[in-house]
Amino acid sequence: MEEQPKEYKELTKKAMAEIVKAVTANIERISPEQTRKLVDMLVEAKRTGKKILVLGAGRSGLVGRAFAMRLMHLNFNVHVVGETITPAVGKDDILLAISGSGTTTLVVTAARIAKKVGAKVIALTSHPKSPLGKCADHIMVIYGRTKLAEKRDYFSRQILGVHEPLAPLGTIFEVAAAIFLDALIVELMDRLGITEKEMKSRHATIEPP
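Now predict its structure.
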């Protein structure tokens, strides 16, 4: 029989509370001006029929895929970088690149290539002065711890003035980015006059009942 810990610390519940607290604090710091410009760029891309390519590595990639799915529901010309049917990026298309650190090699390389062909790069990152930020046409700053802390004790970690005692690696950035992008869909729905009923009509229709 597996040995049980002597004292149950309820770390799951405590971690949930800490993550929610940190993400809430970080969301309060999001710039309305950056958000407005991001929405404007996405709406303009839809109006002109330009492609939006979404890219992220690891868990950030999963966040990007979820956002791409919602853009599809809004009838955007959207694709996920890395899929076999994703077309090449072209002039005035948009590459939405997600990287908390702004240093992820795959993401930075793709952003630089996109810039060379005349595409617009939107960076979602915690570090606007990072390599990704420096090559972006627009930066949407999403705060959160994105690097492994040197000290092993979670309770000693402090990044950007926000304590993250129970959130390993890039959790805060990834959760905050996911919430932000889901909320952004609401603003896009309002701007475009698209209802949830219309979005549902573009949802998967070949799933078993």
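Confidence is low (pLDDT under 50) at residues 146-165.
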